[in-house]
Structure prediction request, 630 residues.
Amino acid sequence: MAQDLASKKQHTGQIKGVLAAALTPMDGNLNIDHEAFAGHCRRLLDAGCHGLGIFGTTGEANSFTADERIAALETLVGSGISGKSLLPGTGSCALPEAVHLSRVALELDVPGVLVLPPFYYKGVSDDGLFRFFAELIERIADPRLRVYLYHFPRMTGVGFSLSLIGRLLEAYPGVIVGTKDSAGDWDRISTLCREFPDLEVFAGTERYLLDTLRHGGTGCISATVNVTSQLARQVHDAHEAGRNDEAEALQEHLTSLRSAIEEYPTIPALKNLTGRFTGEDVWQNIRPPLTRLGDEQADELLSRMRDLGLRQDYS
Amino acid sequence: MAQDLASKKQHTGQIKGVLAAALTPMDGNLNIDHEAFAGHCRRLLDAGCHGLGIFGTTGEANSFTADERIAALETLVGSGISGKSLLPGTGSCALPEAVHLSRVALELDVPGVLVLPPFYYKGVSDDGLFRFFAELIERIADPRLRVYLYHFPRMTGVGFSLSLIGRLLEAYPGVIVGTKDSAGDWDRISTLCREFPDLEVFAGTERYLLDTLRHGGTGCISATVNVTSQLARQVHDAHEAGRNDEAEALQEHLTSLRSAIEEYPTIPALKNLTGRFTGEDVWQNIRPPLTRLGDEQADELLSRMRDLGLRQDYS
Prediction:
């Protein structure tokens, strides 16, 4: 049945497959290092990513001001990374800021924007969230707008219920086009694929990459793909080519890497690994309230990655 | 013993007593109505508030951009409300934004700033939060800075542990000066009063106003004081004058009003009541994800307030 769903699914979105939720490198003053950012994005695309989710949770989006995010996005595209390969996070608790960030992104020709719900107030109603997205869409008022709903309730404390997603799809067909689901719950992802055939469903972890593709989903947008992009792409391609056994074996390898990284604080762990692989100092830096990985943990993680056969894409 | 604590306590902060966490009125396009805001702040001060917490949770701070908050703060002071009576919220998930907001506030002569922890990431360490506040203080680098720690874990999902507060007080004496505690937990407030004699402790609800004052705390900063300011001030003054029985009776009345309002969504309820009392249309408007109170609930609330003898300060 999963295979049936996958074969029937028409992917109308302009971006699909394996997306890294790109890390944001910063200098010693904790300002974004634009050159290192472009370099990292280029490496990820070269290593097989179909696209990049930038300024998501992994990209420390909410630790930057809107102006910092805009400057980095514009510089990135100016450096030659195509806007078409980027799915930037443009959410904000403040509606006008989400509008502004989204408009800037659209001018850079992005295939869509990944939007968090406003996440300060807790216990808000679906009506209130619906109204936020309705206002967002109507204020942006741009036919190019494609919104991906960013569901990460463990961070936001505010989630998209299935009925809210249905209501938004009905009210804004062709504008609400997809979701990144970071709830870490396979049942929810498979339900989304089944219940909303018009929704582009990205799993928030490459742990579910193959399962998501098999159920007609669109791919994954994942933090750990910052270091596993080559392998994740191989899973995708083996599935695409119908080499099912190979896809499963590759997915098992990918999942083992993901599981090991998940035992550490994710963003510090990924920044550390990227620093080890590239030799760049910028990966030591992280904005508070996040903290860098301790040396001992970092050594242990790297050694586990090597034991698990992680290929260092950037060496 | 509580009375002993209260009499020994030296309040070094420049603001104390009854503070309303002021609501923010907005026009039909959901932009801040500066004139109505100044009018509301003036009414609250005239009704007995010693000061105002502006752009806190009740003021929908995080639903506004930094520029909107700054324009409103500057216009408010320009309209004749003294900066000395304001304790503005200047927190942000983005460190440079919290720095910028705080600097602007200091130029307006505020007695302090009320700072949320960065609230996007959950499960962050005390080290990470310490580092955020250390960076904030060191980047602002202004001897006038007085920081009040805004503890509201039900909204932020991130709290100030007692050991973190102790560490901050030790590292930045005279800069970290107080806290607004909105955890709704009397035990925590009394512990703060006892364990940190140098900390100005504001209860986040006037329910604990008298108890807080009796334990040497500084007062309250509360949403519901938008409609109960006169009565809250009477509690304060009766306590101050040593009229203990009267203070207790007034506190009981105040608590009954607070308890009734708490049965409704707080901010929509307070905006509605303020609209009823002032006759101003602006109080109908609220930024998503919050939603206005339904007519039926609003009628019921008003009738309960009248039954409970709420004096309409603004009629």
